[in-house]
Write a structure and sequence with these properties.
Number of helices: 4
Mean pLDDT: 76
Structural class: mainly alpha
Radius of gyration: 21 Å
C-alpha cells in the first residue's frame, strides 16, 4: 500500500516528466499483471483432468 501511495504522489509531482512514457507504461502493466496475477486461485487444470477421467470411465 505504501508503494502505491508513493507512486501516486510521485506521478502527481512529476506528471510532465512521465507523460510522454504513458503508452510504454501501460504496455508494461499487461505482462506484469499476467505474471503476478496467476497465484490468486487461477488455473486448476489438475482438478479438471480428474473430473473428465471419472465421467468418461462410467
Amino acid at each position: 500500500m505504501f508503494v502505491a501511495i508513493a507512486a501516486f504522489y510521485g506521478v502527481q509531482e512529476h506528471f510532465n516528466h512521465v507523460y510522454p512514457y504513458w503508452p510504454y507504461l501501460i504496455l508494461l502493466i499487461c505482462p506484469l499483471m499476467h505474471f503476478l496475477g496467476h497465484g490468486h486461485g487461477g488455473h486448476a487444470h489438475g482438478d479438471q483432468a480428474e473430473t473428465n477421467k471419472d465421467t468418461n470411465g462410467k
